[in-house]
Amino acid sequence: MADENKSYVYVNGKVIGTVGNPAQFAGEIRSARRRGIISGEVNVSFNEKLNSVNINTDRGRIRKPYIILENGQTKLTKEILAKLKSKEINFNYLLRNGIIEYLDAEEEENVLVALSERDITERHTHLEVDITSIFGFTINTAPYPEHNSLARHAMLANFTKQAQGVYATNFNQRFDSRAYILYYPQKPIVTTSAYDTARISTHPSGQNFVVALSTYYGYNMSDAIVLNRAAVDRGLGRSMFYKTYVDEERRYPGGQKDKFRLPQPTADGYMGEHVYSKLSEDGIIEPEMEVAEGDALIGKVAPPRFLEENLGAGGLEEKMRDDSVVLKTGEKGVVDSVIFTESTGATKIVKVRIRSNKIPENGDKFASRHGQKGVVALIVPPEDMPFTSDGIVPDLLLNPHSIPTRLTFGHLLEMLAGKAGAVDGNIIDGTAFSEAGTDRITAYGETLKRHGFEAYGNEVLYDGITGMPFKSVLFNGVVYYNRLYHMVSNKIQVRSRGKVQILTHQPTEGKARQGALRFGEMERDALIGYGASLLLKERLLDQSDKTEVLICKNCGNLGYYDHIKKVQVCTVCKENSFVPVEISYAFKVLLDEIRSLHIMPTIKLNE
Amino acid sequence: MFMARDKVDKKYAVEYGEPVGIIAAQSVGEPGTQMILRSFHLAGIESTISTSGLPRIIELVDAKKKPSTPITYIYLDERIGKSFDRAQEVLKKVNEVRMSNIAKRVLENFSKGKIKVILDVQELQSENLTARQVASRIEKELGKVDATVEEGGIIINMHTKNLKDIRAASIKIMKALVSGVDGAGKATIRKDDRTGEFYLVSGGSNIEGVMAVDGVDKERTTTNDVFAIYRLFGIEAARNALGNELKRTLKEQKISVEDRHLFLIADAMTASGTIKGVGRHGLSGEKKSVFARAAYEETLKHLIHAAAYGEVDPMKGVTENILVGKQIPIGTGSVKLAIKKEDLAKIKPKDAKKE
Question: Which of A148, A395, A585, A596 is the most exposed, fewest CB within 10 Å of its CB?
Answer without folding.
Answer: A596
